[in-house]
Amino acid sequence: MNKVFLMGRLTRDPEIRYGNDNKPVARYSIAVDRRYKDQNGNYPTDFFNLTSFGNTASFVEKYLRKGTKIVVEGELRNNNYEKDGKTVYSDQIIANSVEFAESKNAQGGGDYSNAPSNAPTGDAGDGFNAIEDATEENLPFI
Fold it and tell me: What is the torsional sign of CA 42, 68, 117, 127?
């Protein structure tokens, strides 16, 4: 099984190109904070390059901009090529599914009026459902 899930913010606007079949290819990168603080009290950040194809690339092109917080589901690919007689290995993340990770209000009021949404509206009116924090009393598997 090869699944990657990432949540982070775009570090730059996506770069869109079209292949020989005229289908879009989106290349972009996100910054993902680690879940712990270092000795200086900062969260270390990892940067990942992503590639999307077809409909996902069209979504990326139309709705995502630098600073947008997203959740990505994809797969990790290992590529290799020859350079100066040596094999060079590189990893690539193919983003198969991309979703917004925060409301447009939290992002600074971007124009997402045409953005697809299948999430019901939450009580706060921000497009997210309110979910109570998990405790031992309300988790069925503890």
Answer: positive
Element at 98 (helix H, strand E) = strand 86-100
- CA separation (Å) from 54 to 2, 11, 77, 129, 139? 20, 22, 18, 30, 39
Q: What is the pLDDT along the chain (142 residues), one digit of tens a residue?
A: 999 999 999 999 999 999 899 999 999 999 999 999 999 999 999 999 999 999 999 999 999 999 999 999 999 999 898 999 999 998 899 999 999 998 776 665 444 444 554 443 444 455 555 555 555 565 555 4
DSSP string, 13-39: PPEEEE-TTS-EEEEEEEEEE-SS--T
> Tokens 């983003």 belong to which residue?
95
Nearest to 67 by CA among 35, 110, 112: 110
- C-alpha–C-alpha distance, residues 130 and 124, integer Å: 8
